[in-house]
Design brief:
The chain is mainly alpha-helical. The strands form two sheets. Strands 1-2 form a two-stranded antiparallel sheet. A two-stranded antiparallel ribbon has the order 3-4. A hairpin with a 4-residue loop joins strand 3 and strand 4. Helix 5 packs across helix 6 and helix 5 packs across helix 8. It is elongated and about 85 Å long.
Length: 204
């Protein structure tokens, strides 16, 4: 395959030279492909450029020109370029909306987890037990749910972040909450490990 294959001249070969951005070559398969048709073509009559095996009939170079002038290729190329523009502008595409949701979810947990950690740290410093007779927010005010859950139940009065989180936990039992005894123990072990490492550094 010659590098000149990636260029074409408009106007029956007498006009401006443009790059065939849709044409890609695989050195491992020793074949050429039309990237936009592979992504978007729904045609029942596909050329070798849009098939898994690719185009490798190097002596039949004219088939590349034939392919790029087919209506199906033109439609796929336009669709490919529209998605490319939308991605560049970061709007109007599912990927951008999904990425925004992922970032919001990350930020939510960045806000929630430090609050949970500081509650555990406070109780550990005060040498207070974290758990009580129950491990549920559904227990009545007269029930002993433990210092940890009791402290977290107090926070929403002043903290909108924890209010939203605990409201969701109560309305969606079984959802991710990071309030379980296992998570409490994990945080305690992490803090203990940090303290030990700090003491070792100060000794050495």
């Amino acid at each position: 395959m010659n590098k000149t294959w990636f260029k074409r001249k408009l106007g029956n070969g007498h006009g401006e030279e443009v790059t065939r951005s849709w044409l890609v070559c695989s050195t491992s398969k020793k074949s050429a492909f039309c990237i936009c048709c592979i992504l978007y073509s729904r045609s029942d009559h596909q050329s070798s450029l849009e098939q898994e095996s690719g185009f490798n009939q190097w002596k039949a170079r004219e088939r590349i020109s034939v392919h790029e002038n087919v209506k199906n290729h033109r439609e796929c190329f336009i669709q490919w370029k529209e998605v490319e523009i939308n991605l560049a502008e970061n709007k109007g595409v599912i990927d951008a909306e999904l990425q925004s949701q992922i970032e919001k979810e990350k930020q939510k947990w960045r806000d929630i987890l430090p609050r949970i950690l500081h509650c555990i740290k406070f109780l550990a410093i005060q040498n207070l037990a974290l758990r009580g007779h129950g491990e549920s927010f559904e227990l009545g005010d007269d029930s002993n749910m433990g210092n940890f859950l009791g402290l977290l139940k107090l926070l929403p009065i002043f903290d909108p972040v924890m209010k939203e989180h605990l409201t969701r936990v109560e309305s969606h039992p079984g959802s991710t909450s990071y309030l379980s005894p296992g998570v409490q123990n994990e945080f305690i072990h992490m803090m203990a490990s940090t303290v030990c490492q700090s003491l070792l550094r100060s000794i050495s």
